[in-house]
Design goal:
Layout lengths: L3 E5 L3 H10 L3 E5 L14 H13 L3 E6 L8 H14 L3 E4 L2 H10 L5 E3 L8 H9 L4 E3 L6 H8 L4 E8 L11 H6 L19 E2 L2 E2 L12 E3 L4 H7 L3 E4 L6 H15 L6 H10 L4 E2 L25 E7 L2 E6 L12
Parallel strand pairs: 1-2, 1-11, 2-3, 3-4, 4-5, 5-6, 6-7, 7-11, 10-12
Antiparallel strand pairs: 7-10, 8-9, 13-14
C-alpha cells in the first residue's frame, strides 16, 4: 500500500499549494499549544473550514498540539482538542504524555499521533505509547534505517520525515534555546541557536571549522528514497516546513508524489525545489551521514541556486556573467 504524503500548512496559500500538488494529508497548528508558536496558525473558525474543505477533497487533516503543557493549561488544551474533534479532525499530534493519557480516556475515539518531539527511536518506547492509545508515531529524525525498520515491525503506524530542516539535537530534548535565551523549543518558541555563528577552540587555540555555523545541519532530503521507505512499511511520508512558502510546499509534495509513481526527478525538478528553500541537502541519519555530509558550516539559511559570477566591480556597479536566467523580484546574494 502506498504511504500517504503529508504536507505542512502554515498559510492558506500553502494549503492551496498542498492540495494542488496532490497531497494525501496536511498538518498545521492552532493559536496555542503548537511547536511552531510563530507560524501563521489557523484560528478555530478557519480550522473548521479547512477540515471541511480537505475532507471534500479526500485529504486528511492532522493538528499539532505538541508542546509540553503546564498543569494549569491542561483543561484549556482539552477543551480545544474536544472542539477540533467535533470538527472531524483526523488526528492530533501530541508530545505531552499526560495530555495523551487524558485524551485517551476522555475522548477515546480521537486518534492520537505521538509527535517527533517525543524522540521515539525504538520498539520499547512504542510499546509504552501503545498502552496510552497512540495509533501512530512520528519517528525522531535521528533514526537510522535499521531503527526505522524495527519500529515498523512493532505493527504501529510509522511516520517519517523525508524533506525539510534538521535539528542539531534530538527533537524534544534540546534545551539550548531555553537555557540561553529563555525560549523553550518544547513550548514552540525555539530561538534556533544552532543556526547562529560560533567559534570553536581546542586547548585555547582556535580551530578552523571552514565556516562559522558549526552547529547548523543541512536540510534533509530523502525524496529519492521514498520507495525504500514504502517497501519498509512506513505509512506516512512527512514534509517539514509549516513556516515555509507555498512554492516550497508545492514542489516538495509534487516531487515526492512523482517518485512514488516511479518517475525520476529531472534536473529542472531538483532546481525548482532548491529555489524554494535549501541549506544544501543530506540523506541524514537514516544513512548515518556525519561531518560534511550532514553539516553546512558556511551558511545557516536559504542559499538558493548559483546564477552566475561577478566579473567586474566599478564603484557602485557590479557586472555579473549569468549562467541562469534572472527574473523580476528575484533576490541576489553575493
Amino acid at each position: 500500500m502506498r504511504p500517504e504524503i503529508l504536507a505542512p500548512v502554515g498559510s492558506m496559500e500553502a494549503l492551496n499549494a498542498a492540495l494542488a500538488a496532490g497531497c494525501d494529508a496536511v498538518y498545521f497548528g492552532l493559536p496555542s499549544f503548537g511547536a511552531r508558536a510563530f507560524a501563521n496558525n489557523f484560528d478555530l473558525e478557519t480550522t473548521k473550514e479547512v477540515i471541511e474543505r480537505c475532507h471534500l477533497c479526500g485529504v486528511k487533516v492532522y493538528i499539532t498540539m505538541n508542546t509540553i503543557l503546564y498543569e494549569d493549561e491542561m483543561e484549556d488544551a482539552y477543551n480545544m482538542a474536544k472542539m477540533v474533534h467535533s470538527f472531524g479532525v483526523d488526528a492530533l499530534i501530541i508530545q505531552d504524555l499526560g495530555f495523551i493519557h487524558l485524551l485517551h480516556h476522555r475522548l477515546p475515539n480521537l486518534v492520537l499521533h505521538a509527535s517527533t518531539q517525543l524522540s521515539v527511536s525504538n520498539p520499547y518506547q512504542i510499546e509504552q505509547l501503545k498502552k496510552l492509545g497512540v495509533q501512530r508515531v512520528v519517528l525522531a529524525r535521528e533514526c537510522t534505517k535499521e531503527e526505522i525498520q524495527a519500529c515498523v515491525d512493532t505493527g504501529i503506524e510509522v511516520e517519517v520525515f523525508v524533506h525539510g530542516a534538521l535539528c542539531i539535537c534530538y527533537s524534544g530534548q534540546c534545551y539550548f534555546s531555553s537555557v540561553h535565551y529563555g525560549r523553550s523549543g518544547n513550548r514552540g518558541m525555539c530561538a534556533q541557536p544552532c543556526r547562529m555563528k560560533y567559534t570553536l577552540y581546542e586547548d585555547g587555540n582556535k580551530v578552523d571549522t571552514h565556516g562559522e555555523y558549526v552547529l547548523s545541519p543541512k536540510d534533509l532530503s530523502l525524496i529519492d528514497e521514498v520507495n525504500t521507505l514504502a517497501d519498509m512499511g512506513v505509512c506516512s511520508l512527512k514534509i517539514e516546513g509549516r513556516m515555509k512558502s507555498a512554492p516550497y510546499v508545492y514542489e516538495s509534495v509534487s516531487q515526492v508524489k512523482k517518485v512514488l509513481e516511479n518517475m525520476e526527478r529531472n534536473v529542472e525538478d531538483k532546481q525548482n525545489l532548491r529555489v524554494t528553500f535549501n541549506r544544501e541537502y543530506t540523506v541524514g541519519h537514516m544513512y548515518r551521514a556525519s561531518g560534511k555530509e550532514l553539516m553546512n558550516s558556511k551558511t545557516c539559511n536559504h542559499q538558493g541556486i548559483e546564477i552566475g559570477k561577478v566579473v567586474k566591480v566599478n564603484k557602485n556597479k557590479i557586472c555579473i556573467q549569468l549562467s541562469q536566467n534572472l527574473h523580476q523580484n528575484d533576490g541576489i546574494r553575493f
